[in-house]
UniProtKB/TrEMBL annotation:
Keywords: DNA-binding, Metal-binding, Nucleus, Repeat, Transcription, Transcription regulation, Zinc, Zinc-finger. InterPro entries: Znf_C2H2_sf, Znf_C2H2_type. Belongs to the krueppel C2H2-type zinc-finger protein family. GO terms for molecular function: DNA-binding transcription activator activity, RNA polymerase II-specific; RNA polymerase II cis-regulatory region sequence-specific DNA binding; zinc ion binding. GO terms for cellular component: nucleus. This is C2H2-type domain-containing protein. PROSITE patterns: ZINC_FINGER_C2H2_1, ZINC_FINGER_C2H2_2. Residues 27-55, 106-133, 134-161, 162-189, 190-217, 218-245, 246-273, 274-301, 302-329, 330-357, 358-385, 386-413, 414-441, 442-465 form the C2H2-type domain. Gene3D superfamilies: Classic Zinc Finger (3.30.160.60). SUPFAM superfamilies: beta-beta-alpha zinc fingers.
Length: 465
């Protein structure tokens, strides 16, 4: 009975189409028998991996090999999970598999894993049971194999026995170095069948495919955040814990990711590696340049479903939606001021502190916002870029023109709930309401005169001079 089962398994192995079959062009290196998908990658491999060929004779031989390597016909690569044997010829895989016919094939009951060695199956089963018999005495790391623990310990000792002969890269494992070398050769053996994405590692392709399937296996137990990679979830959790392990040695900036710190440091160095080919705009991050380019293309992919508002960034739309919901999550602890954006609150707080970081170099004008200074400078230059198409009115700000146009339309959106007073501007209504409340915040320090408006006080003071 046992022989019958083994025979049946052997037949299945020999007749089943290999799960790992793929179609590639094969260019083989004469020096080490490695195979590559293109002549260019083969050439780079020879140049980097067989760098000892320094004299002209050997250099010519390398060039000749690449040039004379024939373009082969499409060939299937056959491989099975039973062992590490691979071949490009079907007769060879059939001949090799016959060697396994007399052997016991050990199969996992939980997945498709097969092995001709019992100890490999036993080790594999620990994946399903969660058993990790080897643990690090320095940190909480646990693993299935002793060899993995030995490799892990090199993290603590700082030992990196494998190094790249082209750059300064060093690593613990030989497989990491082999993968790294593909950066220099340009080899990307794994590609997506849906889009043009190519990568060095199979695991990277598997992760990428989740973008197309929409699968997000990792989720936060505190909020609704979901993601594709475990590392992304680990990074996200630091938002909830408040952990910011990376800090700037120049200022007080702290962040969650090392890459964010590296980006931040460019602020101090003044480095702006990305620049617009249309205007003089330069920036630190590639994503900022991509967003900037939408200004030139006029692309506004995000739009409000309640009004006609359109914008370039998703975050801008999310902020805008709070106008419709009335949500104002940021509030001042010194007054009743509330706002939508954190930046608005930070700007508001300068009113209480008296801080005015922007000042005019022509007059004594000081202000809180840079945009206010830019607008003020137009007073000195005489620039009035906005003009009315009905009368000769010109102004510095677009908002002033919008307010002015209401004179022509007769629109008075603000009205007093006590009397019939109506006005164009909110500030005019606020000033009017002081008539009803009797409030007179401005007073003369010489006599008992009090008034509602500062301009009225200034006019009154001239009577004393």
């Amino acid at each position: 009975m046992r022989k019958k089962i083994l025979k049946q398994k052997s037949v299945n192995i020999l007749t089943k189409k290999p799960s790992g079959a793929s179609t590639k062009y094969i260019f083989e290196c004469d020096g080490c028998s490695k195979k590559f998908s293109t002549k260019d990658i083969l050439a780079k491999h020879i140049s980097y991996s067989h760098k000892t060929q320094k004299n002209q004779k050997n250099t010519t031989a390398v060039r000749t090999q690449v040039e004379q390597t024939p373009v082969p016909q499409l060939t299937e690569i056959f491989n099975y999970d039973i062992c590490e044997f691979k071949t490009s010829q079907k007769r060879c895989i059939l001949a090799h598999l016959k060697a396994h016919v007399a052997e016991q094939v050990y199969c996992c009951n939980n997945c498709d894993y097969k092995s001709i060695k019992k100890d490999r199956l036993q080790r594999h089963m620990k994946i399903h049971t969660g058993e990790k018999p080897f643990s690090c005495h320095i940190c909480k790391y646990q693993c299935i194999q002793k060899s993995d623990l030995q490799k892990h310990m090199k993290i603590h000792t700082g030992e990196k026995p494998f190094s790249c002969h082209i750059c300064e890269y060093k690593c613990i494992r030989k497989s990491d170095l082999q993968r790294h070398m593909k950066i220099h050769t340009g080899e990307k053996p794994f590609s997506c069948h849906i889009c043009k994405y190519q990568c060095i590692r199979k695991s990277s392709l598997q992760t990428h495919m989740k973008i197309h399937t929409g699968e997000k296996p990792f989720s936060c137990h505190i909020c609704k955040y979901q993601c594709i990679r475990k590392s992304d979830l680990q990074r996200h959790m630091k938002i909830h814990t408040g952990e910011k392990p990376f800090s700037c040695n120049i200022c007080e900036y702290k962040c969650i990711q090392k890459s964010d710190l590296q980006t931040h440091m460019k602020i101090h160095t003044g480095e702006k590696p990305f620049s617009c080919h249309i205007c003089k705009y330069q920036c630190i991050r590639k994503i900022d340049l991509q967003r900037h380019m939408k200004i030139h293309t006029g692309e506004k992919p995000f739009s409000c479903h309640m009004c006609k508002y359109q914008c370039i960034q998703k975050s801008s739309l999310q902020t805008h939606m709070k106008i419709h919901t009335g949500e104002k999550p940021f509030s001042c602890h010194m007054c009743k001021y509330q706002c939508i954006q954190k930046s608005s609150l930070q700007r508001h707080m300068k009113i209480h502190t008296g801080e005015k970081p922007f000042s005019c170099h022509i007059c004594k004008y000081q202000c809180i916002r840079k945009i206010d200074l830019q607008r003020h400078m137009k007073i000195h230059t005489g620039e009035k870029p906005f003009s009315c198409n009905i009368c000769e009115y010109k102004c510095i700000q677009k908002s002033d023109l919008q307010t002015h146009m209401k004179i022509h339309t007769g629109e008075k959106p603000f009205s007093c709930h006590i009397c019939k007073y109506q006005c164009i501007r909110k500030i005019d209504l606020q000033r009017h309401m002081k008539i009803h409340t009797g409030e007179k915040p401005f007073s003369c320090h010489i006599c008992e005169y009090k008034c509602i408006e500062k301009s009225s006080l200034q006019r009154h003071m001239k009577t004393h001079t």
